[in-house]
């Protein structure tokens, strides 16, 4: 395998006097590597393509549970301490190419100063579970994709950079970002109006 | 002979450069492909993963994974947007980011007195992902003698190529 012919190739002198080498180890390694790379790239594209056909319609119920405080914060800002109820079944969003879901709850509102305000209040990383037979209903609590939170405190402070939270219409939105094992990421969301802050 | 030894690598280098610059134009981002350097976005992204970026005209919204540079520093940071406040006339946007694996938001990373990121700091949004393939660049950067060895071997192969 490592003879001079294998490493340097068969030489053949062509009619115009040029020397051409064929079938050396480098040529074989080069073509194998190129072929491997091409096949791998095509497989990655096909894999990420399957996500295009993946449909899911998870049920989501999200509402403000109560507003505990709404106070001034560091001078010119406002801080609202709220709790929320979230019931979401995101298990169907997982496809075979999904590595994890990044799910978060955000408050969205509009003020005279800012037409778009989005503040993330809570987030959760939900990883792909290995396939297993469906558990009896009582054991479902272990599956993070089946979210049930009641009167849950926010992970991050709900801070408005101005003084516009009083009497403000707020939407609570559940967003989930789908992180693939390979390929394109996409995001879906469910917007649920939550009423007015006091 | 010498002309050929200069032209061949020159052609290869310039065609790679043209392809790279075209990619920059197409994606609207100054760095359309980046390698994740830190573990602050685990478990979504690990050190050595490759990210494909696109800037586009769409406004920055929460949940997006953005790549940004802070004034005066030239390492890109890849984190997720967790708060957006966009002015009514659309001219200005305040953005706050946080690494998934970090406990607090990125205000500890921003420059002194800086509370928000703005449009000009953000270089692109992550739209696609390849696991682990960027480990090569990290290894080459951590062990520079490997980089010199690789370049010398490639140069040697090019010069001793017997094909016409």
TrEMBL record, chain A:
Topology of this chain in the membrane: Single-pass type II membrane protein
Family under the similarity heading: Belongs to the SPCS3 family.
Name of the protein in question: Signal peptidase complex subunit 3
Any one Pfam family match given in the protein's UniProt record, by short name: SPC22
GO cellular component: signal peptidase complex
Keywords from the UniProt entry: Endoplasmic reticulum, Membrane, Signal-anchor, Transmembrane, Transmembrane helix
PANTHER family: MICROSOMAL SIGNAL PEPTIDASE 23 KD SUBUNIT SPC22/23 (PTHR12804), SIGNAL PEPTIDASE COMPLEX SUBUNIT 3 (PTHR12804:SF0)
Subcellular location: Endoplasmic reticulum membrane
InterPro entries referenced in this protein's UniProt entry, alphabetically: SPC3
TrEMBL record, chain B:
Recorded GO MF terms: serine-type endopeptidase activity; signal peptidase activity
Gene3D superfamilies, sorted: Umud Fragment, subunit A
GO cellular component: signal peptidase complex
InterPro entries xref list: LexA/Signal_pep-like_sf (IPR036286), Peptidase_S24_S26A/B/C (IPR015927), Peptidase_S26 (IPR019533), Peptidase_S26B (IPR001733)
Membrane topology label: Single-pass type II membrane protein
Catalytic activity: Cleavage of hydrophobic, N-terminal signal or leader sequences from secreted and periplasmic proteins
Alphabetical UniProt keywords: Hydrolase, Membrane, Protease, Signal-anchor, Transmembrane, Transmembrane helix
Listed GO biological process terms: signal peptide processing
EC annotation from Swiss-Prot or TrEMBL: 3.4.21.89
Peptidase S24/S26A/S26B/S26C domain ranges (all copies): 21-126
Cellular location(s): Endoplasmic reticulum membrane
Function: Catalytic component of the signal peptidase complex (SPC) which catalyzes the cleavage of N-terminal signal sequences from nascent proteins as they are translocated into the lumen of the endoplasmic reticulum. Specifically cleaves N-terminal signal peptides that contain a hydrophobic alpha-helix (h-region) shorter than 18-20 amino acids.
Similarity-based family: Belongs to the peptidase S26B family.
Entry protein name: Signal peptidase complex catalytic subunit SEC11
């Amino acid at each position: 395998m490592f003879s001079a012919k294998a490493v340097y190739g068969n030489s053949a002198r062509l009619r115009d006097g040029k020397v051409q080498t064929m079938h050396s180890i480098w040529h074989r390694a080069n073509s194998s590597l190129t072929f491997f790379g091409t096949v791998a790239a095509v497989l990655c594209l096909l894999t990420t393509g399957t996500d295009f056909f993946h449909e899911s319609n998870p049920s989501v119920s999200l509402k403000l549970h109560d507003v505990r405080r709404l106070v001034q914060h560091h001078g010119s800002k406002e801080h609202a301490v709220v709790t929320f109820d979230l019931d979401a079944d995101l298990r169907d969003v997982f496809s075979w190419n999904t590595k994890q879901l990044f799910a978060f709850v955000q408050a969205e509102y509009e003020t005279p100063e800012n037409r778009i305000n989005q503040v993330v209040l809570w987030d959760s990383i939900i990883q792909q579970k290995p396939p297993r037979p469906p558990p009896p209903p009582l054991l479902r609590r272990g599956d993070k994709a089946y979210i049930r939170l009641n009167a849950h405190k926010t992970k991050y402070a709900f801070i408005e950079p101005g003084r516009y939270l009083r009497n403000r219409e707020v939407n609570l939105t559940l967003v989930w970002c789908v992180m693939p094992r390979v390929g394109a990421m996409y995001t879906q969301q469910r917007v649920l109006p939550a009423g007015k802050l006091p | 002979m010498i002309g050929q030894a200069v032209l061949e690598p020159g052609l290869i280098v310039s065609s790679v450069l043209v392809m790279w610059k075209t990619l920059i134009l197409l994606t609207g981002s100054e760095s359309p492909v980046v390698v994740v350097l830190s573990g602050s976005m685990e478990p979504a992204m690990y050190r050595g993963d490759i990210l494909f970026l696109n800037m586009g005209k769409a406004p920055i919204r929460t949940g997006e994974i953005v790549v940004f540079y802070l004034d005066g520093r030239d390492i890109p940071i890849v984190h997720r947007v967790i708060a957006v406040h966009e002015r009514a006339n659309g001219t200005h946007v305040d953005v706050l980011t946080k690494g998934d694996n970090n406990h607090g938001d990125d205000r500890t990373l921003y420059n002194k007195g800086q509370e928000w990121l703005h449009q000009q700091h953000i270089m692109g949004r992550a739209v696609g992902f390849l696991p682990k393939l960027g480990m090569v660049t990290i290894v080459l950067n951590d062990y520079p003698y490997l980089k010199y060895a690789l370049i010398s071997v490639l140069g040697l192969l090019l010069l001793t190529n017997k094909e016409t």
